[in-house]
Design a protein that fits this description.
- There is one protein chain.
- The chain has five domains: 151 residues, Leucine-rich Repeat Variant, CATH 1.25.10; 114 residues, Leucine-rich Repeat Variant, CATH 1.25.10.10; 107 residues, Alpha Horseshoe (Leucine-rich Repeat Variant), CATH 1.25.10; 129 residues, no CATH class; 101 residues, Leucine-rich Repeat Variant, CATH 1.25.10.10.
- The chain is mainly α.
- Helices cover 62% and strands 0% of the residues.
- The protein contains 43 helices and no strands.
Amino acid sequence: MKRFLQGVLFVGGVVVASCGKPAPEEPPPSPAPPSASAATTAAERTKYLNALKSPKHATRQAAIEELAWLAETDPEVLPALVELLKDQQTAGPGRTLPHQINSTREAAARAILRCTDGEKVMKDRGLAILRNELKDTSAVIREHTLYTISLLGNLAQPLAADVQKLCSDPDPHVRGLAFDTLRVVGVADPVALAELLLHEEEDIVRLAAQLIPEVATMPAAAVAPLAKALASNNSNIQAAAAEGLARAGPLAAPATPQLVAAITQAYPEKFDPRTASLFGPQRTFWKALAHIGEAAVAPTAQLLDHTNPLVRMLAARTLGDIGPPAQTAKDALKKALSDTFVEVAVEAAVTLDSLGAFPDDVVDLMKRALDTPNGGVAATAIEGLPRMGAAKESLIPLALAKMDDANPNTRAAAVWLVGQIPLATATKAATALAPRLTDTEPEIRRLAGYVLVQLGPAGAAAAEALGQALATEEESDIRAVFIDALITMEAAAQPAVAALLPLLADPQLTVTQRAQIAQALARADPASPAVAKALVKAATDAEPTLRAAAAEALGRLNPLPAEAVATLVKLAQSDRHTGPRAAAIRALATAGPRAKAAHAEVDALTTSQQPGMSLWAQAARAAIAGDISRAAPTIRAGLTDRNTATRTAAAEILLLLGPTPADQPVLLQLLRDPNTATRTAAAKALARLGPAAREAVPQLRRLLDDADAEQRIAAAEALGQIGAAARPALTRLTELRDDPLVGRAARRAIEQIERPKKK
């Protein structure tokens, strides 16, 4: 910072000297010897450039930070860093790790990206160097160059074609990194990727199959190799080929015969309930037919005569997915209404009704199916209702009444239906969900919780039962879902407060769950004296995580009792852990004018020796005065501050200010920050931008592999808020569905990406 101020004073001196009368022309002075400060700067530059070659991660990381700041005043830093992109020192093959810098080239790239003009320099000069390094004869150099490129995000899109050429590299490390890098920079040639499904190397085929679903659209030229890949003996390769054909849509019409052949081969002639599944890899065959559309109607209708009833059922469903063009198959569908396999008849009825071509007996058929003791039949009928047309209006109440059916499959389908119907209807149905929160089947209890998460405040009718069920639930993961549901209900969860209060101090619950309960309580009843008392007590708990959560929750109380203010001040001033101190000052900023009694103490904290704490105190001071936007210039300046704690605090405070699209460039920069907390805060801020943050998708997708669980959760949540534009991250999110820490966030993100919000 001293160097920076010296530079400003020097520039100021030049400006002053140039004012007034013009000076007489003089011959240019002779070159002066380097000044002491110039020599010092050169020595510093050399020192830190050499440190980028250190085998120690911490040394390299510190050098990156120093060089980024030195570049503000030393114009020689960026050119020197660009030259280091050619450096061939690496940690060896297979040593490209997300939590460790393993080559000088990688270190140089990270340093460039941290500089103010780094992205421009990388575009103008760096990409050309990296493109050339991809051609190096050494496999290790190609490997580490690919990894460096993957760090650049959208910036590296011009290198996509060069990267894709290495997908068939002789070295397995290189081709593995090439596929991984394409997930960041995008597939340059979908046709070439489709052709890799026919490659002789098994691992290349496998990697290509994993990447196909991340390609948004497939051109007509890709249809032939994709169709040929359907003949593979590997069901996962077939599924990838079919997914690619689905992305091609109507252009994939020439592949319809191969899809039908693949279906015929995949399903046995006779139905075997022990092996039959709706969720195997072959489900993508039907998806492809549905996306092909009109050209697939006749071949799909012919499958209504298949000997396996599961094929007939899926054919009827697929015709419904095709939509209006399937009108030409209505005679075959009417014939299927009398199929001896009731599920086939049900799907035919659903499709006919959705096409507006339903016969008079469709409703009667569906009613009989709903009353069938066989849970599979009734569940199929219930699952089909959202896809029906006019007839569903009279059938939905009958299906919802099945929530207390003796058959668990039927109960589960009825619970699921509440999350699929219009919000106004679901609000009325929420009462019926209450008994399912204590169902004997754990999966039904879990499903009921997920549906209430979807409904949010619309699930208010089940709030009291949800709180009581939480108190008796023994499955930890189901408790977590119930707490999520209460949090999403906001103030509508008020009836659950009585049941939640004792749980806040229950040692049988995890600290994380108790922390979430603190959040739920403050959202449910911010005016409750009982809630305030419980949170004040929790703020003195031995667990710092709970103290921090209680502090955050106290900031939501309205009114904010004097005891709560005193508790927050005490935490902010003297808690022995950083987490509760920071949470307390954040809470005072959130409370704003409600924390007026603490204005003197907050003002004193603005001079804190902890930069992050000082910045939060400045924000809190402005908020208490009634207008946090007064601190906006200081906060936004903090996003690029040299101090890590200041950058983190600024990104967190931005959530209170409200991030705007203009903040996106610096937030994208912060996603590359070496500090986990800063990256997490940046991801949360980008989430607020929603679809406007689509440019962040490649970097957020990378952060799904971060070592820190909170970082992975924040990345997943941001991808979900971005919505459909985050589709390239679906594969990785799907892999995280069952992760014990990130699973719930991943599942929510998948749903947000795959379908719009309910209205």
